[in-house]
Design goal:
Elements: H1 2-11, H2 16-23, H3 27-34, H4 43-55, H5 61-69
Amino acid sequence: MLATVLRRLDQAKGAWPDIARESGVPYQTLTKIACRIVCDPRVSTVQTLFDYFAAHADRPATAVRAHAVH
């Protein structure tokens, strides 16, 4: 699950503020996970991000980034 979340965060790098806001995960927490500063994040945080990406699976990462720019 963590690998999937990390991959999706890498793909949507420009959209991290939006992902944080929409998922409810604090931006600083999200960036620490995405930048691999936190190697063993809480399961509940990873689950929240995983669920966010699953709910937005129909939106490709490029669309997530484009959404963040506008």
